[in-house]
Amino acid sequence: MSARRPIVAGNWKMNGDRAAARALATAVEKSSSGIATVDLVICPPAVHLTEVEGQLREAAGTEGRPQRVALGGQNAWDKPAGAFTGEVSPQMLADSGCRYVILGHSERRTLCGETDAVVNAKLKAALAAGLTPIVCVGETLTEREAGRTDEVVSGQVRGSLAGLGADDVGRLVIAYEPVWAIGTGRVATPDQAQAVHALIRGLLGSLAGAGTAAKVRIQYGGSVKPDNAADLAAQPDIDGALVGGASLDAAGFLAIARAFAG
Ligand code: 13P
Q1: Residue 26 CA, ligand 1 centroid: distance in Å
Q2: Stretch 9-34: mean pLDDT, rounded?
Q3: All domains of the chain, ordered by start, with CATH?
């Protein structure tokens, strides 16, 4: 069990129309009341953010309590505004009610060519906008089978966090998402995940000091489901989950969050 407050985030990816987004957000907020010891985040498609923000506020309001589910973006550009057709700035995300933003997801690294340098620029822009970045790292199956997991993940952490001071490192959430486990149903074993989480925490220690490293929350992502979440949550350096497919079902997402609530 982690010594940090767990954070469980749902990455909805490019799924759902407006009606589905409204319904899912409402269901997650309404059913979240028993999970006070875990930070809950949902990351809908950018076009649905404003609407989902309203739904979360309304769902909590009808129950006369503060909102429990926070909002996050799935990506952001590295500038506050300007001639960047099709992009969304971190300031726009913040203005739409986001507190978090996922950066460097493997789908963006692979499909959109995002390098560590790109992720680094976006991360600095997101911090400047007051957002909490959820920075994703993870090796491919080929890299794992070649025994290169530690080298690849360390390189991504160093490159993505380059130039950050200890205070800024302390504001991050890191997500370890082995590419071979994303959307495949093939989850990393708790031991495999714990080993990489411990490696990342050690590296954060050398970059920002042991005190900061001990505070940073490191999520696991990749085929997390209600039936495997408890074993992951039992590991000392796994501080939550970044959930894809299973976050599209409110009951499943909250069952995962409950596993981290202990
Ligand atoms: P799945 O949970 O669908 O494997 O996706 C994980 C992920 O990519 C979360 O960002």
Answers
A1: 21
A2: 96
A3: 7-261 (3.20.20.70)
